[in-house]
Design goal:
Distance between the termini: 84 Å
Radius of gyration: 28 Å
Number of strands: 45
Structural class: alpha+beta
Largest sheet: 10 strands, antiparallel
Strand content: 25-35%
């Protein structure tokens, strides 16, 4: 093939950005084995993660209209929702006077992730290629995805981009017969592909300006499957400042699917490439500048918190290709040979659990839009949807078993709306959706098949979709939601002037709480049962599901301490999160979806419960496990589930999962900082549990009513002093002895505090880190119940908040103070597996 003339080559010439130079510097570090830390930030404060490329690890670039889903070797599939346009994108190079073809994807060396884009860098002795991928957020972008290729080389080279045309709708909609590809040539030899379907009103067009077509088998050739190819002749002198975009557009009408119209769409996209990239950067810059942020001594935790906000935001998707409305999808990962990219549907329960995080960082618009979407799809009898495909309108969706398969979205609706009301104070919105809320409440309160007054599994699964030996009748998970939903509905009814309904709901909540204690508490094991099954009794399986009883902070189980100690122990807690059930359960299976895996969702539930119940150290361990997963797989996002035995993600885990990222934010704000909002009472309740090593912390731009406030926390001897930037805001605390003085809230601190280190283990290892089962303060002592592998020595840190304490212990070795903290080394007795030890500190 002849090379197009420079005059006719269609490309975007841009100077290499500062980010490109930073990536070069990173690669030099990486080549020397000097990888940067988890939360490396750009000079301008932009979030950035830089890593060696792990060839098989996933990445996701997701926006409201499309997604690029791939592996860190740079191969990917591209979606313009709800269509998968192409898959298997890969690159090869032939260099001048170098008679060996180079598989570029095998040269993937580094990955650089920022909220607005992801860049894969390929490094070879002759060339460096950077593949920058983005999913434009601008409503005027005209596409759902875009890729930019920047190249440097010593010798001229021919670069071939090969891909498989897909043109398949997201499952379960049928996809048309295989697409046929047409190359439309332009002057100078360049052109673009049209991917045709069997009907004329839908087609896709793709181009890399300046490239030529590759394999295009003639009609006479034997039938076979070939990839489509863009072939680009790169001259390092001529093209060294050029960026070559992969442009993708989709037509949804016969008029827009013509050659002329598609060609024009591609030309417009090409002319807007730089503007689209800058608009995307600006979008996320503004997002981070406006959202809640934390400032703590732990830079990685600060970064994980902000990454969670962007990961959640990226899962907003248009409810239809031409719609203005958006709703939350559950998550994404590459679809492989299928047409379902992870949990890329709209989910009720997933979004409702996640709205607690969204409310708490102040994205009230997303909350209102999501609640409105769910109520638009509320069933006539009031049941709230479980899931809805992006192609639901193209099939007989009501005949399929998915939309209302689960029962928990209905109580979660009232809970999430009440949380929104407490933080925003937006009674007007609550009043506007009152009919839908009341229908959902009627459904919840009239579906109790056994007459015990609790909403049960007769209307769908509570949580588990499979169980041994049989499916439960009434899970404690669903019962706990019913109790909290009753309190939430009482609040909503009172706020909208329905006082009689409010009182009825509050009385119902009290009855449910009492019934749960009677039905579920198992005295002989000092635990709460997994489920209550009427005349068949209770299922005593030890699980983490009772933890949801603490979620709203309005109620808790009465006999929880022994159960929480078990959650903290190694039979429930791995070094990367909590299992759904104990590994001592007869049917425990560490790779079973519902019988043994670790979900960050569960870990978040447990962390919040532990903080609220005074198990701060285990709560901190679980919080940090979720936060540290930000850098574990799909960089910047938290995965869906992991093995219960080995530290490894399951192969089918959705790598960019909505509620997993939400469970970084909620345990931080509602657990560690102990926040509770009441916009109606102008009161922010803060009951913090800061790590012993922290001298101070701050929460910036915390939403409260129609404004945001900054909250600062500073240690001063035996007190933690809390101040708000708004002097009119009333601060309160659940911690005994807290009082207002001189415009600040003064919270008493224990004389002694304990700190633990928390980090994820090496991939493939089993659980081996120390567990803090319990911590009990007396007037002049602290008693710790610890568990660790037999014969091991573990290190804790001790903070003394008062001088001259004369701190002593017979159960470990106290070292000299270093930076205000004293090391405490504890030797555990010999023994197989985990063994326990009690450590008492006296003063």
């Amino acid at each position: 093939m002849s090379s197009p003339s420079r005059k006719n080559r269609s490309m975007i010439s841009i100077l290499m950005s500062a980010a490109s130079f930073a990536m070069l510097g990173f690669f030099c570090m990486a080549a020397l084995g000097q990888a940067p830390g988890p939360g490396t930030a750009a000079d301008d404060g932009t979030l950035r993660i830089q890593r060696h490329a792990a060839a098989e690890a996933p990445f996701s670039v997701v926006g409201t209209r499309g997604a690029i889903l791939g592996r860190q070797n740079g191969t990917f599939e591209a979606w313009i929702f709800p269509w998968k346009i192409l898959s298997g994108m890969r690159i090869s190079v032939r260099m001048q006077d170098y008679p060996v073809p180079i598989d570029v994807n095998e040269q993937a060396a580094a990955i650089d992730v920022e909220p607005d884009h992801t860049t894969i860098t390929y490094s070879h002795a002759n060339f460096t290629i950077r593949q920058t991928m983005l999913a434009p957020e601008s409503s005027n972008a005209g596409t759902g995805v875009m890729v930019l290729y920047e190249m440097q080389a010593i010798r001229p080279m021919t670069v071939t981009f090969s891909f498989d045309p897909a043109m398949q709708r997201m499952w379960p909609a049928d996809s048309p017969s295989p697409t046929s590809a047409e190359w439309v040539g332009r002057s100078g030899g360049s052109g673009f592909y049209i991917l045709h379907l069997a009907f004329p009103d839908q087609a896709a067009a793709l181009s890399i300006p300046g490239s030529e077509s590759g394999i295009m088998p003639p009609y006479q050739e034997r039938a076979s499957t070939w990839p489509l190819q863009f072939v680009l002749n790169f001259d390092p002198k001529r093209d060294r400042q050029a960026a070559f975009p992969l442009l993708v557009t989709f037509a949804t009408s016969a008029a827009s699917a013509t050659k002329e119209a598609l060609g024009q769409s591609l030309r417009e996209l090409e002319s807007q490439t730089i503007a689209i990239r800058e608009a995307n950067r600006e979008y996320y810059s503004k997002l981070l500048a406006q959202r809640t942020a934390i400032e703590t001594p732990d830079a990685d935790l600060n970064a994980a918190f902000s990454w969670a906000e962007t990961a959640i935001d990226q899962l907003r998707v248009k409810t239809a290709p031409d719609a203005q409305e958006e709703a939350l999808t559950a998550g994404f990962v590459g679809s492989g040979e299928s047409t379902r990219p992870g949990f890329g549907w709209f989910f009720g329960r997933d979004s409702l659990w996640s709205l607690y995080a969204i409310n708490s960082f102040g994205d009230f618009g997303t909350t209102r839009e999501e609640i409105t979407f769910l109520l638009q799809h509320e069933r006539a009898d009031g049941k709230i949807m479980h899931e809805r495909s992006q192609t639901a309108d193209l099939v007989s969706w009501a005949s399929l078993p998915y939309e209302f398969a689960a029962a928990d979205s209905t109580p979660l609706l009232a809970m999430a709306v009440d949380d929104y009301l407490k933080i925003s104070g937006d009674r007007e919105f609550v009043a506007s959706i009152w009919p839908g809320l009341e229908r959902a409440w009627d459904f919840e309160t009239t579906h109790d098949t056994d007459g015990d007054g609790i909403y049960d599994n007769s209307q769908g699964t509570g949580w588990v979709e499979s169980w041994v030996p049989t499916m439960p009748h009434q899970e404690i998970y669903l019962a706990a939601l019913d109790e909290q939903a009753s309190i939430a509905f009482a609040d909503l009814a009172r706020a909208t002037g329905h006082s009689d309904l409010s009182e009825q709901a509050r009385q119902r909540a009290a009855r449910i709480a009492s019934t749960i204690e009677k039905e579920y508490y198992v005295a002989d094991s000092q635990d709460y049962a997994f489920s209550w099954n009427g005349k068949d009794g209770v299922d005593k399986t030890a699980s983490i599901f009772p933890s949801v009883a603490w979620w709203d902070g309005t109620w808790s189980l009465k006999h929880a301490d022994p159960m929480m100690q078990r959650w903290a122990g190694s039979d429930i807690s791995t070094d990367w999160g909590t299992r759904i059930v104990s590994d001592q359960t007869s049917f425990y299976d560490p790779i079973s979806y519902h019988q043994g895996t670790v979900w960050p969702l569960y870990t978040g539930w447990v962390a919040v419960a532990e903080y609220r119940a005074g198990h701060d150290l285990s709560g901190y361990a679980h919080l940090m496990q979720n936060a540290n997963l930000t850098w574990a797989q799909d960089l910047g996002d938290v995965t869906e589930l992991l093995s219960g035995r080995f530290y490894q993600v399951l192969g089918r885990s959705t790598a960019h999962q909505l509620w997993s990222s939400a469970m970084v934010i909620s345990p931080v704000l509602r657990g560690m900082f102990g926040l509770e909002w009441s916009a109606a009472a102008n009161t922010l309740t803060i009951s913090p549990h800061l790590p012993a090593a922290w001298e101070k912390a701050a929460i910036r731009r915390l939403p409260f009513g129609n404004r945001t406030v900054d909250v600062t926390l500073q240690r001063e001897g035996r007190e933690l002093v809390v101040q708000a930037s708004d002097p009119e805001l009333h601060l309160a605390s659940r911690i005994p002895g807290a009082e207002q003085k001189n415009g600040a809230l003064h919270i008493p601190l224990h004389a002694v505090e304990i700190g633990i280190e928390e980090h994820l283990p090496e991939a493939g290892t089993e659980t081996h880190q120390m567990k803090v089962l319990d911590e009990k303060y007396n007037e002049r002592s602290l008693v710790l119940q610890l568990s660790a592998p037999g014969g091991s020595t573990q290190k804790l840190t001790v903070r003394e908040n008062a001088s001259a304490l004369r701190l002593t212990t017979k159960d470990g070795e106290l070292g000299a103070a270093d930076g205000g903290l004293r090391p405490l080394r504890v030797r555990f007795p010999d023994g197989a597996g985990y063994v326990g030890k009690t450590v008492t500190l006296s003063w």
